[in-house]
Amino acid sequence: MFSLHPQNSTPLVLQIVEGFRQVIDNGSLRAGSKAPSIRQFAHAHEVSVFTVVDAYDRLVAQGYFASRPHSGFFVKQRPATDSGVPGQAPNFSFDSMWYLRRIFENRALRMKPGCGWLPGDWLFQDGVRRSLRSLATDDMDFGGYGEPKGYPPLRQLVRDLLAEKEVAVSSEQVLLTQGSSQAMDLAARRLVRPGDAVLVDEPGYPNLLFSLRFLGARLIGVPRTPTGYDLVALEQLVLAHQPKVFFTQPRLQSPTGSVAQLAHLHRVMQLADKHDFLVVENDINADLDLEPRPSLASLDQLNRVVYIGSFSKTISPNIRVGYLAANPDLLEDLAQLKMIAGLTSSEFTERLAYGALLDGRWRKHVKSLRERLAKAHVAAAARLLSIGFEIFTEPKAGMFLWTRHPGIPDSAVLAYKAAEQDILLGPGHLFSPNLQPSSWLRFNVAFSDDPAIMVFLENQCQSSH
User: Fold this and answer.
1) pTM summary value
2) What's the CATH number for 364-463?
3) Which fold has domain 125-358?
């Protein structure tokens, strides 16, 4: 069909894509033909399965392949003159951001220092199993959809947990969601219209940034500092753009790990009051924090703040149970949007989470998890510093370190090389509101203890000089 040349400077994934494009454009591989399976192609050409997966996904994105569940990949029927010139192949502009997100999200790689979740054995597995056994003996109605706002006892428990954080709400102000991602999506769809100026952390949370771009928002990045926000820049941006809403993660922020000081929180709320914008506070890492801290919600009591939390970081990401809390009128709108998008959330998983939270070992598990993360922070930071990396801040809590090396100007290039070595990295441009190239990398300390990771990084840093 075509040959690959490993010694060529062109990455193998690009060689595969271009090879298939040529044989499809010249008619050697006709519409409707089945492409070799990923494993067949990888074996025949002695390349990694990961490389072939990303090449095939890119061909799907470019309109050359169609993916059929349980059947494989097939050549798509293509117009003869996509470019407007008979016989000339269409000119596709490939979205490198999309491609690197595929790398970033790929869980098949063996080493995952760039991922956004915790190892399974760090989570509350035993508590989930005990809750599951208890749930199996309950007389649960499997014929209904559950409550629109979510399982009432869990909403009441969230109310009590928020009270411990000095946020006073009723259970009617709590909406359970399918993880924090759905909570942020609901808030974005309710609060943002095309063309609206929206403040976001810079760097910030990739999924949220993509969601806001999809809604047509004008993203305005508020620079993060090791102690919170660049307050001078924040005030200037508010004055210049008159934002509709500020989506932010004050505590143990992803990707920087930074924690906003109390004075910074007060200033955010002062600006919100003065310039009449809302704040969506993502506080999903609160349970990982070693210290009790005020939140924007505790300062504002949900007047202007929508508060988002999750149990994914401490119980299990697979059960997909998150929540948001807001003022009563806004909460009803968000509940309606939730119903429109997907009816109710899963009562089964909400009851599963509820049982785990009531488990007598729950608080001990959270305490142990915080201590384990603190030790992992110290170890990961020491390794990175020893090979010349600069660290943005060392919170010694949460999952993330934000770091860069003076010899690596573009972390996206490093991420691609790492993927070829079975290593998942989190390149900095993924976290940029404007998709700008970046030298920064996000490291998950819970996945950064494999010596092979540091050997790879050290070799790359040395070869860059």
Assistant:
1) 0.78
2) 3.90.1150.10
3) Aspartate Aminotransferase; domain 2 (3.40.640)
